[in-house]
Amino acid sequence: MYDFLVERPTSISQAVAALRDDDTQVIAGGQTLIPTMKNRLAGASKLVSVTKVKEMLVFVAEDGVLRIGASTQHDRVAQLQDSGEFPALGYLAANIGDPAVRNRGTIGGSLANNDPAACYPAAVLASNATIVTDSRSIAADDFFIGMFDTDLREDELIVEVRFPIPQRAAYVKFEQPASRFALVGVFVAQNAGRVRVAVTGASDGGVFRWHQAEEALSADFNPASVADLQVSAEGMIADIHGSARYRAHLVQTLTSRAVAAAS
To answer: Taking residues 102-127, what's their average pLDDT?
Structure first.
């Protein structure tokens, strides 16, 4: 690891100003950045830690919307399992990595990194959430562009995520046992009679919505509605853990299970 300085701003304006300096990166939980720096695959002369920025630690439900600050750790989100606000999101967070990862990793860091097998992108996309940055609000459908790629600008900072609390929702993940990343994960959310289905871990283009299943489930929210649907294996990830056809099959299977769990 190369030498670097750490700056700890306490406000959004201070953080954004610090990020304008050359060779600077933002850090919250550091679950991706620090291992990468240790292997000298990335480096920065200064890291801007945002863990002390109060605006990025908000955690409140109001007017049917759950606001979660970008620096909120997975373990805090996991506490939603035992609340009536958004238990599906809490279940998702409680099954990320291991206790060490959940106590350091943050929702904002996960979304900014946009790993193709990360869990949070599926929740954000299925819930039709809004990503709020220091300068604008980005709809979930516009935020995720591709593998490790988002609509974030180079000096832009995620401040919070706003989730419309669904009437019912569920997340089902078929995990890779060693990493606990999603080999395939499906998040299903219903709100105002409309259903959104988001899939992570399956496509080499990153998280995506399964529109065919959404139409069927919006008409009849029942596992049987997706029983005869099929997902094309084209564009699916194929590796030592599973073929493209296997992942395509898992999408349909896990969607059915998620609907059953939400019901």
So the answer is: 96
